[in-house]
Amino acid sequence: MEGFLVVIDPGFDRELKQLQRAGHQDTVDQILAVLPRLVEDPVTRRPGLDARTMGVFRREKLRLKVGDLYIFYEVDREERTAIVTTVSRGGQRWRRS
C-alpha cells in the first residue's frame, strides 16, 4: 500500500520558525521527528504517534501531542493526503482557510 502525501501549510512552517527564533530548537526537532510517521498512517494511534480525532467533515481533523504542544492536521483518506495546518500550546485551535 502506498503512503500518504504529507503537505505542510505555510502557516505551520512560519510557526516552526517562530519557535526556533524563541529558542525552542529542541521542540522543533521533536516535531520534525514525528512528521515522517504521518506518511505511513496519519490516523492510527501507535507508539510515537498519539493521534486523536477531533472531527470529520470532508477531511478528518486530528491533533497530535508532541511535548507540551499540539500539531493539528487534516486527513483525506480518498486523496491519501495529510495537511499539517498549525502548532499550538495546549487547547484546541483551528486556523480557518
Explain how this protein is built:
The chain has 97 residues and is α+β, with helices and mostly antiparallel strands. The chain is 27% helix and 34% strand. It has helices spanning 10-21, 25-34, 37-40, and strands spanning 5-8, 51-56, 60-66, 69-76, 81-88. Strand 2 and strand 3 (60-66) form a beta hairpin. The longest helix has 12 residues, at 10-21.
Q: Name the CATH superfamily classification.
A: RelE-like
CATH architecture: 2-Layer Sandwich
| Rg of Cα set | 13 Å
Strand order of the largest sheet: 1-5-4-3-2
Largest sheet: 5 strands, mixed
Shape: globular
Order of helices and strands: EHHHEEEE
Number of domains: 1
Mean pLDDT over all positions:
86
Strand content: 25-35%
The top-level CATH class is Alpha Beta
Structural class: alpha+beta
> Helical content, roughly?
25-40%
First-last Cα distance: 30 Å
Which segments are poorly predicted (pLDDT under 50) over 5 or more consecutive residues?
A: 92-97
Number of contiguous helices: 3
Q: What is the count of β-strands?
A: 5
CATH topology title: YaeB-like fold
